[in-house]
Design goal:
single chain, mainly alpha, 12 helices, 68% helix, globular
Length: 234
């Protein structure tokens, strides 16, 4: 019996993809805040790509067991920014944007390895390992990009929306943030609600991937057979 959300044999690939993706996401928050003059995250040791600085033990276990997890939140002090609202939006948006950039990098790497023949140069085992790793890196990061843009606390989308609102409206909204967090948990853990909300947002994953793949096709002369690539996961 498999108690994990993912196939047991895929867990190493899932863990690597999860560790890399969340480390980059949280580093992007921390480094952007540091660039804008706030050393809070830097002093906390969060301006690093080392996953150990960012991964939460329970959040990591949950991603393996339930397909839903989290990392340690990055601390920052917007009062140290020259333009607190604008720079807070940039710090918040840096996380999801970093995940989208990771998707683009991974898709380009697959194209490059395929173009040069290196993707199939090794043994069958090495090829399948590469296929699995790139697959999970690409679609986990697309999921993180879309998921974090949902405008509910504690997600980045909420932080972006909140900082776009007038000051008084923002203060009123902050008084009810806990209700938004409860709503978010209901949407995550109640399947019928999730199906008509979060799953609808994540349904755009394929469109994002196709658009990035089409850009690559316009750059590389050798066409990538993504259908065969994903069949090779089996």
């Amino acid at each position: 019996m498999n108690f994990f959300w993912f196939p047991f044999e895929d867990l190493p690939f899932i863990f690597i993809a999860f560790a890399v993706s969340l480390a980059v996401h949280e580093w992007a928050h921390a480094y952007t805040a540091y660039l804008f003059g706030d050393r809070t995250a830097y002093d906390a040791g969060r301006v690093t790509l080392n996953p150990r600085a960012h991964l939460d033990v329970l959040g990591t276990i949950m991603i393996l067991l339930a397909g839903f997890g989290w990392a340690k939140p990055v601390p920052y002090n917007p009062n140290r920014f020259r333009k607190p609202r604008l720079m807070s939006i940039a710090v918040t948006a840096a996380g999801p944007i970093s995940n989208l950039l990771l998707v683009i990098i991974c898709v380009f790497l697959v194209y490059l390895l395929n173009q040069t023949g290196l993707l199939q140069a090794g043994s069958v085992g090495v090829y399948k390992a590469l296929v699995h790793q790139f697959y999970y890196l690409i679609f986990l990061n697309i999921t993180l990009f879309l998921f974090n843009l949902i405008p509910l606390p504690p997600l980045d989308g909420y932080g972006i929306i909140k900082n776009l609102l007038p000051y008084r409206t923002r203060l009123q909204l902050e008084q009810h943030e806990h209700w938004g967090a409860y709503l978010f948990l209901l949407l995550v853990f109640i399947p019928p609600l999730r199906a008509v909300t979060i799953d609808q947002v994540l349904g755009y994953s394929g469109d994002i991937f196709i658009n990035i793949a089409e850009i690559c096709e316009n750059i590389f002369t050798k066409r990538m057979d993504w259908y065969q690539f994903f069949i090779d996961l089996s």
